[in-house]
Amino acid sequence: xxxxxxxxxxSETIKVYSERQPFxxxxxxxxxxxxxxxxxxxxxxxxxxxxxxxxxxDRPVADIFLSSDIARLIDITEAGANVxxxxxxxxxxxxxxxxxxxxxxxxxxxxxxxxxxxEKISYEDLILPKYKDRVCTRSGYHPYNISLFSALIAHHGVxxxxxxxxxLKANLSRKPQxxxxxxxxxxxAGVCDVSIxxxxxxxxxxxxxxxxxxxxxxxxxxxxQDSYGSHVNISGIAIINNKNYDASIDxxxxxxxEEAQKIYANDNNEFPVNVNVKASERVQALANNAxxxxxxxxxxxxxxxxxxxxxxxxxxxx
Length: 318
Description:
Structural class: alpha/beta
Radius of gyration: 20 Å
Order of helices and strands: EHEHEHEEHHHEHEEHHEHHH
CATH topology of the largest domain: D-Maltodextrin-Binding Protein, domain 2
Number of domains: 2
CATH superfamily of the largest domain: Periplasmic binding protein-like II
Distance between the termini: 38 Å
Strand content: 15-25%
Number of helices: 12
CATH class of the largest domain: Alpha Beta
């Protein structure tokens, strides 16, 4: 990490590396540009931006890295490619550090066939004998699952998790494949009965005329309501350049103000991280006052290596 310089170095153009497509935030970009006169240059790519940021850390090209997952932000900060930022007063402490801050939050839920008539379930339940050959998931190595598995280590320890992941693999109905929505499609098709996926995919399927039919048989459940709450991941932001520091901080704080949080979170059916902002009505209705895991994301991130070592050891995707 290196320390930010003074306001004299601020620029009117802020370059943003982003794994999120610009249309998800375009209304906010337009509003910010109109209000401030600053310009946002959005540089989007699905892959390679973390490596690019780290390679460029001594001569940064962009000013901000906007991530769709906590893992990328941790990779950047561990490589010393970020600039220290102030803590944000309206963001919970477990969702920020002086290296990065969250912008929105999403829950990792369990999708279940309606015939199971489940009112509650936990991540830990997925290894029960009754779910033998009935579980579907995308790759265990996907950042969304790495984050969940890292949280399980935080709650139960490495030895417990190794036993858990062996049993979870044994309960899979097929090799890990596809994305989160593909797992719901598999439940609809009778390949499995339960799967893991982010909550907002429910709305993406609801809004897709070709996918809404899957939800006639499948519903999301927010897990672990009787214990520590559903696991959450984030979209977040780190500043990666001294040069435009003050302009970058200004944009960061703009994205966390109440009006921007409503727009940004609602456009992707996520949960705002600003404690003064409620989720949209449709997200609130789905979550039904769900309890969320309050464990520090930094602690979760510290378990990623252990997760990867165990996944490799048992060849989870094989």
